[in-house]
Amino acid sequence: MTEIAELPVLAGVEWPRDEEPPAVPGFVVSDFSPLVSELADRCLTERHGTAPAPAEIGGRTAVVLVTASGDAQSAAHVAEAVDTGARVGPLLFFQSVPNSIAGHVATRWGLRGPVLCISPTGQPRADGMAQARLLIEDGDADEVLVVCVEQAVEQAGNAAQGSAFLASKGDSR
Length: 173
What we know:
The chain is 35% helix and 18% strand. The chain is of the alpha/beta class. Strands 1-5-4-2-3 form a 5-stranded mixed sheet, with helices on both faces.
């Protein structure tokens, strides 16, 4: 196994499990998208203040969403609806939710680099850092927002967990 060296991290946040993320218009049923959005906002606010990011930085910033389960709550909701013969609304196309919320974050913050969603094969943070390193080394980005989110729909209460960090090839300011 190849060891991936860490990049400089300019900002980072962890999700406090006792909070509910604020709703995001257009994303329903699940806390997956609101959690991705809130983690991204907190991380990017720590670095840039308010949205959007400065154009010279945002234009070279990528977004990487790391999740093994994707939007598990919406997937479970759709499965239950199908099993019971209920109508499934068009906003519940759960397979596209990770890409949609990553694009939503990129648009709101003016991030014009690549937007990727990956499923980790090992540790989510390490896999996200490895992807960030590839994007930076290939010249596709100078900074990479990495958001790691997982849900556990079997557990009671707010079982979502997540973190976000902004990796860089160096201080871009």
